[in-house]
Specification:
Length: 290
């Protein structure tokens, strides 16, 4: 065997070993990340004496599984109402966020004004203000508008969280689109708005998907504002309704809590994986071009 052939085989073995190591680490990381979800799924169907037995394996059924706790969640609590409220609020906030963030991001990315960059930074800094510092003042706003204890209170307030970071993300993605694209559309007879709608929007679709996923996830998981603005159960969302219904004093309906977590997480995880490639593209392009 020649020295060149031996060197080639050595590099090939190193390449295979490196690939195996990378995939092995990825599989291990996936298993570690999946363990909490698996534990929640198993716990949702466990009997009380199995769940509270310290000798039991937390990832296996040491006693026969039971659907009673899931049935209790779906029939004895307004969980489905909470889910419907969450979907309604999430869809409305996503629509408002796109309606406000797309024009703002386009104007900051395309219109050459001296205040463009400082304005973009200022918009992003608004997102860094913690909700715990704002909910008292925003509560006064909600009360003055007569929206207390309604879903509209969350629909009106949540864009203050989602719009700033969405604008910042879309600015970076719009900067990745060459200006020649819309200039050519305008030469063909379209207005600036028409060029934006017909030529630019299809190219920034991954960024729009990233904004939609980010906005809906943030809206569904937000707790402080939802707790401050809504107090009646029929108007609550999942993030506040589930704890108030399944934590009563020092009594925790633990299996039903885990069932609620699983039922809520599965659709979001499915949609996230469905648009995963576009979601990652949107965030990475925004990060590079900002």
């Amino acid at each position: 065997m020649s020295e060149t052939e031996a060197l080639r085989r050595r590099y090939a073995r190193r390449h295979v070993a490196a690939r195996v190591g990378v995939y092995g680490a990825a599989v291990l990381a996936a298993l570690v990340c999946a363990l909490p979800f698996l534990w929640s799924l198993v716990s949702a169907f466990k009997q009380n004496r199995d769940l509270y037995n310290p000798e039991s394996n937390p990832f296996a059924f040491n006693e026969p599984a039971t659907p009673d706790h899931v049935r209790f969640l779906l029939t004895d609590t307004p969980f489905l109402t909470f889910v419907a409220n969450t979907l309604l609020v999430g869809a409305a906030v996503v629509a408002l966020t796109l309606l406000m963030s797309l024009p703002a991001a386009y104007s900051l990315a395309r219109l050459n004004r001296p205040w463009g960059t400082p304005m973009g930074i200022a918009i992003f800094l608004v997102y860094l203000v913690p909700p715990s510092l704002l909910f008292l003042s925003l509560t006064r706003v909600v009360v003055s508008l007569g929206l207390e204890d309604t879903l509209w209170s969350m629909i009106v307030v949540y864009p203050t969280i989602t719009v700033p970071v969405s604008v910042w993300l879309l600015i970076g993605f719009l900067k990745a689109v060459p200006k020649d694209v819309e200039e050519q559309a305008m030469v063909d007879g379209h207005s600036r708005l028409g060029a934006f709608a017909r030529a630019v929007l299809p190219l920034v679709f991954p960024g729009i998907v990233a904004v939609v996923v980010f906005t809906f996830t943030l809206t569904a998981s937000e707790f402080v504002y939802a707790l401050a603005f809504v107090s009646s159960s029929p108007k609550m969302v999942v993030s506040t309704g589930v704890p108030t219904q399944l934590i009563r004093g020092d009594v925790f309906f633990w299996q039903s809590l885990q069932a609620a977590a699983v039922v809520t997480a599965m659709p979001i995880a499915f949609l996230f994986n469905l648009f995963l490639d576009r979601f990652v593209t949107g965030f990475t392009m925004g990060a590079v071009k900002t």
